[in-house]
Amino acid sequence: MIDWDKLRVFHAVAEAGSFTHAGETLNLSQSAVSRQISALEEALQVPLFHRHARGLILTEQGETLNRTVREVFAKLAMTEALLTESKEKPSGKLKVTTTVAFGSTWLAPRIKAFLDHYPEISLSIVLDDQDLDLAMREADVAIRMHPPRQPDLIQRHLMTMSWMLVAAPDYLKRMGVPERAEDLDQHRLLVFGDYRTPVQDINWILDAGKRQGITRRPVLEVNSIYGLLLAVQSGLGIAAIPDYMIDETRDLVRVLPDIKAPKVEAYFVYPEELRNSKRVSVFRDFLLTQLADKG
To answer: By the 8 A CB rule, do 243 and 163 touch?
Structure first.
């Protein structure tokens, strides 16, 4: 039977990539860590690491073991959090992930109100336009701009977002206000760069009302919706920005308000194991209240 202490050391080494860094994490000497790994390899009778001057690389057998160990420790951490969660009031750590734009412009300014109401909760927010793996505890809950693709995740619809075409008053004064979608052919357009796009059809502005045979070439591509917003505010051109960001901004002009734009559905997502977590439920309810107030 595999020793749990050795598995804990193995996992730390696999994540750190060296005996030294793992030892610092575990408060053990490098030699003690090395002995534990050697003993584990001897017990399993397989090599777990390739050792070289620049560090350690998992062998194929090591990769297999580490995947299982990561999952086991993730489940244990989740179980521990649920068992120790206060029955009186929500408390403990809650790790939330969402897109960079939504997290930085809508969520972050509202966190103070949440933590003022639930001071026993320690919140961590990870902004990433790619989905983190909730099953592997890369985060506890997620606010996603699409339905969850994993069948074992619980989802709650939060809101429907709309795109708005906006420009700075200075730009419209210089370049004129587009009256029809076809007029975008003559305007300076700003779009999301072709890199880890957070939602589908994000650059629909390049095709909306486009005349046949015309290719619209953006003057700027940037892989950040918040970056697009700042570029629009500078007077560079026209961009499609989500309505929740425009609600927070008062110095832009909406153009072509009747143009047909794709919708974005936002969901609150979390694993089945956290169904009864008070931290998760109060955070979900807080989001729904804030969004209801918005409407």
So the answer is: yes
Strand partners, 191: 221
Helix axes 30-44, 4-16, angle to 10 degrees: 110
Q: The tokens 């969402």 sit on which residue?
A: 98
Structure tokens at 87: 């029955």
Contacts with 76 (C-beta within 8 Å, 6 or more apart), sequence order:
none
- For the chain, the maximum distance between any two Cα atoms, rounded to a whole number of angstroms, is 75
In the chain, % helix, strand, coil (3-state, to 5) comes to 45, 20, 35
Q: How far is CA 163 from CA 24, 53, 135, 202, in A?
A: 48, 52, 31, 9
pLDDT in tens, 171-226: 999 999 999 999 999 999 999 987 778 888 899 999 998 888 888 999 999 999 99
Distance between CA atoms of residues 215 and 201, nearest Å: 17
3-state secondary structure 30-76: HHHHHHHHHHHHHHHCCCCEEEECCEEEECHHHHHHHHHHHHHHHHH
With 0-12 / 13-18 / 19 or more C-beta atoms within 10 angstroms meaning exposed / middle / buried, residue 175 is middle
Burial (CB < 10 A; 0-12, 13-18, 19+), residue 73, is: middle
Q: Tell me, what's the pLDDT at 158?
A: 93
pLDDT tens digits, residue range 145-164? 988 877 789 999 999 999 99
Nearest to 192 by CA among 257, 129, 260, 148: 129
Give the position of tokens 């403990």.
92
Say which DSSP state 211 is in: P
Beta carbons of 26 and 15 less than 8 angstroms apart: no
Helix (H) or strand (E) holding 154: strand 153-167
Identify the weakest region by mean pLDDT among 66-75, 85-94, 256-265, 285-294.
Answer: 85-94
Separation of alpha carbons 228 and 219, rounded Å: 11
For residue 290, give the H/E element and its range. Answer: helix 278-294
